[in-house]
Design a protein that fits this description.
83% helix; 66 residues; elongated; 0% strand; 3 helices; mainly alpha
Amino acid sequence: MKKENIKELTDKELQDRLDQVQKEYVQEKIQHTISPLDNPAKITLDRKLIARLKTEIRERELKNNK
């Protein structure tokens, strides 16, 4: 998901997407510990997506407080 796509989401959609990606990330980490994933780079991509989503949420919070 690109930054442009993230900026188009509403606050509710952004939070829902963050929750969903975090759950997937935890599941992938657990599965990768048990047996290797076909694409272990997905773990890194999910971690970066979580950071992007959290950054956008924080930017919106700061913008609304001004």
